[in-house]
Queue: 3 jobs
Job 1
Amino acid sequence: MAKNMQPVAKRCKALGISPAVMGYAKKTTVRGAGKNIRRKQSEYALQLKEKQKVKFIYGMLEKQFRSYYEIASRRPGQTGENLLQMLERRLDNVVYRLGFAATRREARQLVSHAHFTVNGKKVNIPSYQVKTGDVIAVKEGSRSSVKFSSLTGADAPVVLVPEWLSREAGELKGSVARLPERSDIEYEVEEHFIVELYSK
């Protein structure tokens, strides 16, 4: 499977993303900050940047991202919002948003290595689309590992879980309370630029 191995901090700076959105709260992008010269960007450049931003956040390559767009365009409602909802519903993103992984990259690896179950059944497909009522849990055999045992107890990191998901403190499982809405997106994005780019 192809992987996106771009340096996170450098790419975040180029796309105007806070590293915290990627789960890298300690990374900085101040190197060479004084060298930036603001230039007026063309409409195409703005559209391309928004697409690259969303692709980078979710760690996707063009072929898969285009496939998501095609599906979103065939569904009722606004294509851009449909696209963002589908990306948020990916199992690797849900694992990250529930606080079971520090970054989406780590979440993708953990899912691929079959550390999670959905409604009691093992799922190792990062792109799996969760539904309302689904229960995502760390597999019983993985709970004693250092990675997951550190997520419970007094020293467990505090996680800000989005409203569309639910997780009890100290529990290695969470659930989908409802489908994500546009207001649940944690980063700034002009999704209409992506729709315009693909509509040409």
Job 2
Amino acid sequence: MTLTQLRYLMAIARTKSLNQAAKQLYVSQPSLTSAMKELEKELGITLFYRSGRGVTLTGDGTEFLLYAKQLYGQYEELLKRYGKGGSRRKKFGVSTQHYSFAVKAFVDMAKQFDMSRYEFAIRETRTPEVISDVSTMKSEIGVLYLCDFNRKFMEKLLKSAGLEFHPLINCQAYVYLWKGHPLAGESSICFEQLKDYPCLAFEQGDDSAFYLAEEILSTNEYAQVIRANDRATMLNLMVGLNGYTLCSGIICEELNGSDFLAVPFEPDEQNQNSIMEIGYVVRKHTLLSPIGGLYVEELKRCLGLL
């Protein structure tokens, strides 16, 4: 059974004439008749009676035609959505730890497209979800970081998820706070100076939280810790409670505003600095889509690599 045979049958039922159906289908009548005989032979039923006054569907033919219309209708819907010139919107998604530069790169990428023809998604989320989203192809690209402390754990996690890490930039730790913070005027800030202020961290869940943390130096003993779920809340806590977080120092004022700044973290014997290797993850053995490649270019541009 072929879709062509179903299309022929529907034309015959509509015109009640082999001759008229053949004309509408732009095929010869013998070809049309032969196709219907082959279909009847395969099905083991008679689809229609032929007479001098035209063609009449049999009971079996009428019942079969109902299913044929449903099946062919679904085929036409597939063509409308996925065929050449179809209406389906192309999809592209990014999942990222809470980095304003990753959002900025997404904005700059999206501006280059007619968004009525695309379905874009940007997901600022927890580290496990970044990995899961890319592994399940919910997102094409994930943005996260590795460091000496979490590297072995994260590489094992990425390997089990079928992902590979592509490094972009190395950064040392900075203290991120608002401009009205008592320490905002310092040229550098050490751990001892931070003890009177709450350390802000993105919540990752209970399992392996140290390894999954988005903040560098996550194993340090902080006197005060407040966990949040989104970047907007984090910024509000910086202003309302003089909170701070330890980050890469890469600030996007266009999205976060100009009320926040990053001050270099000054290490001591007990609290050494560490390198954040920020990069992106994709599924192994896959090529980036053209949109994915453009997004990576915008990432590099936002990071000052282009």
Job 3
Amino acid sequence: MEETYVQSTNKTIASSLLWMFFGLLSTGIIAAVTYYTGAFVEVATTAWPMLLITEVVVAIVFGLFFNKLSAGVATFLFFLYSMITGATFSIIFVAYDLTTIGYALFATAGFFGILAYMGYKTERDLSKFGNVLMAALIMALIVTVINIFLGSSTLDIVLDWVILGVFAGLTIYDMNKIKVLSEIGYDPEKTAIYGAMQLYLDFINIFLRILQLFGSRKD
């Protein structure tokens, strides 16, 4: 019986990681197409407010109403979010060359893999850390907005490190949560897509912080 539970959990986690990969792939494809067709100009000048609003609405609907959504609708929202993110990520190609982006992706994949493995293997109860990490993230985002007006480059660097640390913790927490949901018998399909969305968000945010901290911008 225990072996059956383990196999079921591993299958759900594998599904989450596969869906996450497809989400990241769609983001990358849309970002590249948007950049190389020149559509990134419209994104940067006129379309970004609508894209940002749509992205926020999708994230809110996914987060607040996930339990009421069917697996199909949840999957649609996940890919809609990943494609909108791809359009906004096209600006990255303007600021950084492909080599820098490639190195950042490679570093992110390695770092993310270690964190996800830690979340999978730990037997500790991590439930209490979720609220702490989210509170820290909200505080960091608030300070980020304030720093837009302050313009402190030093504070920018500190915030990047803080946010990187928060999403490192969230990666461990989210992977562990996928395992816990699977073990208690929550709908495997919905668990997989929920996990994919959370891990996707962790991955892209870790990628952004690594790129900003260590990436070389175009002259």
